[in-house]
């Protein structure tokens, strides 16, 4: 199941290129920690970042974020790596009703079977049933840094089976162009491999004097 945003980004192209190609082509420090993984196979999403921070095991900011979110947003949440159920089926249903396309959280989620059945893309650093509190409003919409990567409202979020990248909004067009060029180059490499060439020669990695 794939969710594609309706917005200024060429979402289908970004999704087709995928996170690995976009990261390599971008030359940016834009990949989120690899501990953040899809909670169900096939989850993928492209959308605008809505950054959120929480208190430890406190999901009140996620409820607030759904009021402030716009259609096409993806919540990108610093959940302090807490292994608790910040998010589940009810919040997924509420998010979808608001036009929110997905969730990326450095923290835990639950109800994973129901998330898969609903087709709501969620990427998290853990799956956990531990309960949360609702005491701290945290922040919604303010810039955050997640795993050393800056995330501002409106940045481009792409998430798939390989991971999650967050591309600065003003760099999105340039990264797309670079990604398309890399895609074309790799298609040429695959054709040459099919014809019997070695990657040592294709990439020019062969040590001198070893022909």
UniProtKB/TrEMBL annotation:
CDD domains named in the record: RraA_family
Record's catalysed reaction(s) = 4-hydroxy-4-methyl-2-oxoglutarate = 2 pyruvate; oxaloacetate + H(+) = pyruvate + CO2
> What Enzyme Commission number(s) does the record list for this chain?
4.1.1.112, 4.1.3.17
Q: What Pfam families does the database record attribute to this sequence?
A: RraA-like
Record-linked Gene3D superfamilies:
Ribonuclease E inhibitor RraA/RraA-like
Task: List where this protein forms a coiled coil.
Answer: none
Identify which cofactors the protein needs according to its UniProt entry: a divalent metal cation
Role noted for this protein: Catalyzes the aldol cleavage of 4-hydroxy-4-methyl-2-oxoglutarate (HMG) into 2 molecules of pyruvate. Also contains a secondary oxaloacetate (OAA) decarboxylase activity due to the common pyruvate enolate transition state formed following C-C bond cleavage in the retro-aldol and decarboxylation reactions.
Q: How does it assemble?
A: Homotrimer.
What's the family? Belongs to the class II aldolase/RraA-like family.
Q: What is this protein called?
A: Putative 4-hydroxy-4-methyl-2-oxoglutarate aldolase
Specify the species. Answer: Streptomyces polygonati
């Amino acid at each position: 199941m794939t969710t594609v945003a309706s917005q200024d980004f060429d979402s289908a192209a970004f999704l087709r290129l995928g996170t690995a190609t976009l990261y390599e082509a971008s030359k940016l420090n834009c990949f989120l920690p690899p501990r953040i993984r899809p909670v169900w196979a096939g989850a993928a999403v492209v959308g605008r970042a809505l950054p959120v921070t929480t208190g430890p095991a406190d999901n009140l900011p996620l409820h607030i974020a759904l009021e402030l979110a716009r259609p096409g947003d993806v919540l990108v949440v610093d959940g302090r790596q807490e292994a608790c159920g910040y998010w589940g089926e009810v919040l997924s249903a509420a998010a979808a009703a608001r036009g929110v396309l997905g969730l990326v959280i450095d923290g835990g989620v639950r109800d994973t079977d129901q998330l898969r059945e609903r087709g709501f893309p969620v990427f998290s650093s853990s799956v956990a049933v531990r309960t949360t509190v609702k005491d701290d409003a945290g922040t919604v919409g303010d810039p955050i840094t997640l795993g050393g990567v800056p995330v501002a409202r409106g940045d481009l979020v792409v998430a798939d089976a390989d991971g999650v990248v967050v591309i600065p909004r003003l760099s999105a067009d340039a990264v797309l162009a670079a990604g398309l060029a890399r895609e074309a180059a790799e298609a040429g490499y695959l054709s040459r491999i099919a014809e019997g060439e070695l990657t040592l020669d294709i990439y020019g990695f062969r040590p001198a004097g070893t022909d």
